[in-house]
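Lecture 7 notes: from sequence to structure.

We start with a single chain of 240 residues. Read the sequence below before looking at the structure.
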Amino acid sequence: MSEPQRLQKVLARMGLASRRVCEEYITESRVKINGTIATLGDKVTDDDLIEVDGVVYSAKPDVVAYLLNKPAGVVTTADDPEGRKIVTDFVPDDVRVFPVGRLDMETEGLLLLTNDGDLTHRLTHPSFGIEKEYLAHVKGDPSPKTLRMLREGIELEDGITSPAKVSCQSGGLLTLVIHEGKNRQVRRMCDAVGHRVERLVRLRIGPIRDPKLKPGESRKLTQDELLDLQKAIKSSVVNS
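Now the structure, written as tokens:
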């Protein structure tokens, strides 16, 4: 989109609603352009930020986002001077994208890749606190006291962790939900309570999950999933 286009056309293209319904959003003062309430007839360019009911969107038409089920042994980077397998090897190369956050080399599971810097910032900055859910196979069977410690926060060298949601299955399987992005956080939390992680899989990023996506497979996020992410970002800020 090189030339300015009518706001309702851009909103409809994003998949928010039909053009007529988008016009109603505008007349109801539910839409802002760069922080200012929009009116019918307004136009936007690639550089504008659009808000609908407080959720921010980019007007750029070339924004893409992929969901990858990262296999173990793959480096979470868009370039590796050592020539190792990297996450961008698993997505189409027609648009250059970058991973959102990090999974260490041996951690598996869901990872987002996008060319949208605004979305990346909102998903990784601590102030937004988007939940990530993990399944950890740990050595030994954690006791109720250990689970309570994980839930209340663990003292690490870079600070105490925020309270986590933790549940335990038999055989040393833990489900952990955290909303921070400390380096190797789940592994270090489990190490700190004496239960080394033997396998770690990320199951969910905010509202996004896909149990049918096989290791090494990727797909584009749907418009509904992108909207759900934006809503989750807004909700996390409101509730923080």
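The longest strand covers residues 197-205. Keep this in mind for problem set 3.
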